[in-house]
Amino acid sequence: MFYHLLYPLADDFAIFNLFRYITFRTGCAVMTALVISFIIGPALIKWLKKKQKEGQPIRDDGPETHFKKAGTPTMGGLMILISAGISVLLWSDLTNPYVWVVAGVTLSFGVIGLADDYAKLTTRSHQGISGRVRLLLEFGIAFIAIAAYINFTTTDVATGLAIPFVKDYLLPLGLLFIPFGMLVIVGASNAVNLTDGLDGLAIVPVMIAAACYGLISYLVGNAVFSDYLGIQFLPGTGELAIICGALIGAGMGFLWFNAPPAMVFMGDTGSLSMGAGLGTIAVLVKHELVLLIIGGLFVLETLSVVIQVASFKLTGKRVFRMAPIHHHFEKKGWSEPTVVIRFWIIAVVLALIGLSTLKLR
């Protein structure tokens, strides 16, 4: 909004020339989302407590330390969606189709997560809505997003797959890119969802990944930098850095209230939406495979669940004491802060490795 209102005045007032710069607007998006989170956070938490009474259901088979969290409200992802959403509307170029695709996917997955959280609260169960129904809705939204993306982008570019460490090359997937892109979005969404099990565990790696993709978006959308690095130049994708900035600011604001002992949980409302947003950005900037590295912590959490289920069905034995893997370490006696901080360190290391692919070509 500010870009459209104030940048046209740059000819008369030089200071408004700042609004042409993505870096300036990204920084503003971070601070705006953070401030909005601080403003609405207390009132939103108070309202959620009033409506939910007993708070998020706690798994009976979970670590014993989690029982003391009973009564903590969920759906805190609303704080993230509201603050990030307002920030994006204020600071991004609203004529940019990339912005609307990511915003649409993020909001839609947030609605699915909200419905899932509501179902858990009303049934007093951690199951939520049917997994099949949820996946059907998620893949449907992802299909619409990929179809829209292909429609406004050069087909050869849109359906190509960038290979890490290979200079300026896209592997042509053709129509196969549609299911691939859908899988990236849905997979990222549910991977973040599985990671969200301890106070602060998911939100910090999400912010780390958002920072990485904010940088990637800016570089991919800049002709000079993309040529220097040997990566695909995609005009318009630089605006996605502003969405990444908004997610970082909203994430920091949420973490203020989610820091142990948490005053609120993000719930599926937050984890599904942020994961889907990151997955969509990865697809639009042609760095889908790099997400496996930058978001490696989410991949690890997901694999632990897959391995646990497969092992139990095939052999009747469990590989981990409990899945996802963060609960395994809790069962082994690690304190919750120890698990969280060590996983944050892993997320930082993986993010640095992922960013190295930009230059190692």
Describe the structure.
The chain is an all-alpha fold and 361 residues long. It has one domain (2-356). Helix content is 66%, strand content 2%. It is built from 15 helices and two strands. Strands 1-2 form a two-stranded antiparallel sheet. Strand 1 and strand 2 form a beta hairpin. Helix 3 packs antiparallel against helix 10 (240-258) and helix 7 runs antiparallel to helix 11. The longest helix has 31 residues, at 22-52. The model has no long low-confidence stretch (mean pLDDT 91).
Please give the radius of gyration in angstroms: 20 Å
β-strand amount: under 5%
**Major sheet details:** 2 strands, antiparallel
* Count of discrete alpha- or pi-helical segments spanning 4 or more residues: 15
Number of domains: 1
Mean pLDDT: 91
| Structure classification | mainly alpha
Form type = globular
Unreliable residue stretches: none
Which percent bin holds the helix content? 55-70%
- Written as H for each helix and E for each strand, in order along the chain, the element string is HHHHHHEEHHHHHHHHH
List how many beta strands DSSP finds: 2
Q: Main sheet: which strands, in order across?
A: 1-2
End-to-end separation in angstroms reads 38 Å
- Seen as an oligomer or otherwise, the chain set is single chain
